[in-house]
Model the fold of this input.
Amino acid sequence: METLTTPQTPMTARRFAGKVCVVTGAGSGIGRATALAFGWEGACVVVADVNEAGGWSVVNQIQADGGEAVFVRTDIASRADVRQMVNTAVRQFGRLDCAVNNAGITGGVNAPTGEYPEDAWTKVLAVNLTGTWYCVQEELAVMVPQGSGTIVNVASAAGLHGHPNNVSYCATKHGVVGLTKTAALEYATRGIRVNALCPTGIETPMIMDGRLNLRNNPEALAKFSSQAALKRLGRPEEVADVALWLCSDQSSFITGHALAVDGGSFA
Ligand SMILES: NC(=O)c1ccc[n+]([C@@H]2O[C@H](COP(=O)([O-])OP(=O)(O)OC[C@H]3O[C@@H](n4cnc5c(N)ncnc54)[C@H](O)[C@@H]3O)[C@@H](O)[C@H]2O)c1
Done:
């Protein structure tokens, strides 16, 4: 998964040639697959993450494949970092066409709402909700004068349904969906589309090694996988494909949508 080096789908066209795309949380999992896919499809990619090793490995891979990319160490919970990320896109590549605001954390705690610790609540809010809002604001500051742009915010199926023992994550992902719909309504007539992705059960370090630790728990992994109608976990590349489609002209009549990428889990 993390050593992915070839395009996930055969390319008939380089849809993003000449486009400038930012991906947050691009050093791992879904963000990594999305940044690599933008690179393969011809975009100049701004790779943003707090994980410097992961981010640089993506930049190196895109460049090795003949693409253009730059890494910006970005903590999305910092307005100054997010501004620097967007400024880098403009300074280095001249504009900003697409943004996939993907960085997110779970808080690492399993606890019911009444016992959920305040420090985890505050941390998850700062990254998942305030951080995503900083990204959208700073991206709009470039896209509005340009008169064009597409933004995809990575929420979660936990942004559409309740999520026991994970209240901060669930509340922030619902917030990301609300942020997405509101911005979509406000900027639709100014050439900017804003959509959300709502994945669940994607095989990334977040669920394999994080709060759920599925890598070391075969029973939990089997149970989790069986929740999907497709009876398996999704691959990060399968989410990246949808993110790129939402950023592309092929989805030109879609805005304000929260699209589940869940293998039929909630059908
Ligand atoms: N994997 C799943 O099943 C799943 C399901 C639903 C939603 N999501 C969402 O998808 C997104 C990507 O998750 P993933 O599964 O690829 O996880 P991941 O842990 O593999 O990758 C997340 C990346 O975000 C980075 N990051 C964390 N905090 C950051 C910050 N403050 N600023 C910048 N970067 C930061 C991490 O360093 C990491 O590289 C997240 O928003 C997550 O909530 C994932």
Notes: The chain has one domain: 20-204+235-260. The two ends are 27 Å apart (CA to CA). The domain at 20-204+235-260 is CATH 3.40.50.720 (Rossmann fold).
